Amino acid sequence: MHTLYIAIDCSLSAFVDKQPHGAKKKLQLALDFAGELVDRLDKSDLDISLIALTSRPKIICENAKNAADVTASFSSVHGDNCVPNFVELRDLILQRHKILNFELIIVRDAAHYLPISDSFRLPCIVKFIALSNNRTHDPRILAEFETISTACAADAKLLRTLTNEQLKPGMLYDNASMNSLVDSLVSLSRTTSDVSLSISPTTSIEVNVVPGLPKPPFLILENEELLKKLNDDMKGSSAQLQLLGFVKSASLLCLPRTSMLHIIRIKDLSNEKNKHDFHLFAEALGSEGQVAVFMHSSGEECIVKPLRDDINDPWMLCLQFYPSGHFRWEPEGCQTEKAKIQFSEEKGVSYKVSNSRTYWTDSHGIQSDILKINRLLKRSDRIEQFYQEIQRIALYAIACGYDDPPTCALMADLIMKRCSNAAPENRGHLAKIIETLKVGGFRQLLPGKL
Length: 450
Prior knowledge:
Blueprint: E1 2-9, H1 22-40, E2 46-53, E3 58-61, H2 67-74, H3 86-94, E4 102-109, E5 125-131, H4 139-155, E6 170-172, H5 175-187, E7 191-200, E8 203-214, E9 239-247, H6 250-253, E10 261-266, H7 272-288, E11 291-296, E12 301-307, E13 316-321, E14 325-331, E15 339-345, H8 363-377, H9 383-399, H10 405-418, H11 427-440
Parallel strand pairs: 1-2, 1-4, 4-5, 5-6, 7-9
Antiparallel strand pairs: 2-3, 7-8, 8-10, 9-11, 10-13, 11-12, 12-13, 14-15
Helix pairs in contact: 1-2, 1-5, 7-9, 8-9, 8-10, 10-11
């Protein structure tokens, strides 16, 4: 679930205007903008929280659904005579998030310059919406907005995916331009349900996840060009998860459900190969009681684990983020100097891959499998377990894209060399498996094929 924070500057000093009741007019314009935006955003994968930005910022509404929620939430908020506290705004948000699945929109005045603390940095995309009824603004304000937006994007490691033009703040002048601005913000793709599970160089499974995953980058509007759109056709529009390894861990299988849990579904049921690969991968995980560890394109690790309601049901998959750490702020030197962001590692959950089967990503995986086969072949009363192990290996190999002829031939040669001391009564079974591997590959070793 992606979280959008909308922070409206409610300090009286920020809305001072030379015209009578100017502050009230601009504050109402800010509320109209926020209400229109909340009304029109797709909230299926989005949680919207409203923040009153004063000297003591606070969240005044969580899970806002419509403009009425905006009006009701701010009706009891009274501005103070102090400048807005951006350091407390930073801490308020960082205390609530461990991964980069949030976005911040700050609505401020454009005519009166009030410097923002150098310590205000967030590891996310920050958009500034500047209000000016009379189309005048202090150029220092826009320069500061751009500097902060760029620095925050750098902390979120998004600079390499954003152009300079996308790192400039938006301008909101009046009701006429407000509609154009809302159109642009609503059109942005904040999440994606299309995910590619990259299993091996030859195998990738296309799936859908519900709810969707946060989708960087987010567009920051460029001055008056309010209709600038994010190019959804850009390379990498789908999130990619790269397989790191596997682990047998009861604690990972039984992680508590959180908002970072996503159900994985087959993307295209008409694609037989994709559907077959999905079910093979799910069965390979479920039969061994393992979870797969993936790296998300954002750099966060996540796990894919098998689940089913009944023992007779096919295995399905779910994806769960369990952050390896969280962001916090550490002062550089003395307390008066600029603070910097630090990444603190969480303790208690480890993603270290155990010695269980690792889909032969290294030689150790292959050797351990063959040693187990050899031990079974030495015993005349273990032939049934031998075939079960061969079929399990075949399932893993196919699920991970290692069913190409060279790999099958290599496996056959290794088995023949390492298992030459098989019991005499088992040598016929060994020869059958070797011949099947060389001629038909791993697919001919699956249950029902032998």
